[in-house]
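TICKET #2291
ISSUE: user wants both folds in one file
ATTACHMENT 1:
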Amino acid sequence: MNATVIIPSLNPDEKIISTVKSLIDEGFDDIVLVDDGSDEEHKVRFEEATAFPGVTLLVHEVNKGKGRAMKTAFEYIFNNRPNKPNVITVDGDGQHLATDVKKCIEKLEENPHSVVLGVRNFSGKDIPARSKFGNVCTKMVFRLLCGIKVSDTQTGLRAIPFEYLKMMTEVDGDRYEYETNQLLKIGSDNISYSEVPIETVYIDDNQTSHFHPFRDSARIYGVILKFAASSVISCIIDIVSFRVILFFVPRIIEEALRSSIAGVLARIISATCNFLINKKVVFGAKGNSAKSAVRYLILALCQLGASLGLVALFTEVLNAGDWLKTLIKIIVDTCLFFISFKLQRNWVFKTEKGNSSKDV
């Protein structure tokens, strides 16, 4: 198989040996293991694995996370395996069968510019609840907010063309959130991707997994949480700015005009802060700030107009009083929040264009 297999691992058990052996039996002759800061007790497994021909070991002296381990392997392969056109990431805990790894590579060879995802079926009764729940939630978020249709958002079995390796080393995240950010990058850059059904294997209810549901889920949904936090912060800035500006606007001016002046200036201040926070912190955008600012202004005006128009429409249709009108505004602005997230990610702060089209 003309591909390099990457296996990042932390404190592996004997299953990593059987994983390596099965891959070799399927014809893979280039396997890169990454010891992500394992303790001395478990290092013996890596020593046993490197006894097989074609196995290379890369070592992190301390634990840096699965994402960082994958980046280390990508960097190594980019610099040392220029003749290997493809790589594929595999978990070392026995969840990915060598036959499925081979199927993903064969699929990639049919579509050499497409990322291939090995996807599991989550409908079975033997699927751990945390895995099923996590996949359902993330799949919905990807579909609604990011426009990415992926059956298995948590899969670690991913075949990647060599041409994307450099880009993959620049994707944000060092731990489990890295794999989520990979998919987001694939979607935002319009990189072609396809799916291959694989066996769903969970050993001992997936007890050997190092995934921490709360901590790592927070990292996975980090960009969305930061976007929400940015909106809250901007709202506070808007309110505080309005009050401060109102204090300094002379009272000789008509009250309605004073409020309008304070409201407009406060919105300019809060929108500027929101733009900078989203650009630098939420989306980490690089590139032409002026173009992003113009796009942001267009989106903000459209969002404001949509909010006013829809609230007025539903208020009129439902003959709503103040309480119902408030509820309508909450619902409308919540929907616009999610639409704004998607547009800001894929348009306002988009700095690169993909070079292929999505086929899923």
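ATTACHMENT 2:
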Amino acid sequence: MKKLKCLSCVLLGGSLLAVNVLAQDSSAPYKVLDTTQLMGSGGTDYVYADNDGRRVYVPRGQNTYVFDLDTHKYIGAITNVSGHGVAVDPKTHHGFSSGNPVDMFDTQTMQKIKNIDVSGRSDGILFEPLTERIYVFSHSEPNVTVIDPTDGSIVGTIDLGGAPEEARSDGQGHLYVDIESGNSVAVVDVKAMKVTATYSLQGKGGGPGGLGLDAKNHILFVMCHNPATCVIMNAEDGKILDTLPIHGGTDGGGFNPNTMEAFSSQGDGTLTIIKENSPTSFAVEQTVQTKPGCRTSSLDMKNNHIIVICTERAPQAAAAAPVPAPDANPPAGFRRGGRGFFRGGPGNLDVLFVGR
């Protein structure tokens, strides 16, 4: 976001979990179902739910912390792998963390493989399923660096014409990227690796920070800061279909095709749920109270849970960390203050699981 994010599709697992999903009451309100806390040090940006590998990744300070996506329990830390966000290639089991340099690691051994030098200021990151490549987004040129996840080689770069925030792939060759500095959405042909269209928000919203995509119906949900608005667009031609109010400090968003709901996570401690009643009818369904600072999010598609993260300062008496202690200095690419929320010092990492 000024910082990071990604999703991947996954089949339902065992019969017990499948029954739990089917038994969910679609009319019940969303709420925080579980919270996992982990003492540590350093700032956070994006959270990434690896739906195939059933893990949650949160870069913090100089390490990346890993949690089980189903039990929500802490698994361990990938040391010396840091950055804004994580993306994983399900075929090679190679993960990537967007920093300067980009860190490449093995998801099975949880060991770092190597550094990949990239230009610009790495922020968001995404695995694109059609080309099976990793896209690293930067607030300065080049705006996109494309990486082959097999060996970590750089395939090429793309100029988006502005600073990107979040991106979504339709799996059919189109990548949509909200451009914060241009109040627009760029459309990228992933095979040609070039921008084919740019959709203006036409003053309906500014500073987009989160993005959701209904790939089946070709609808974009662009979550904006100024004003705090979701601009809903036709993904094929950029036509604005509707605008809906959200809360302040959005830095993440998404769309769940299982429930036909878009969501926006906000730094003021709220999560806005938007229902797509039809391709032409949308409504704010609920505003969920999370925790202040929980501005980025990811989606567990098997359990229909939205995951948000934030950090809380802890008393100095609680400074002893039960996990590898990150370096107090931020990794390259992080900004202190603002929406970067790099705090340093001891404190809890809160991983919240929101669902019905």
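RESOLUTION: both attachments delivered.
EXTRA DETAIL ON ATTACHMENT 2: The chain has one domain: 15-355.
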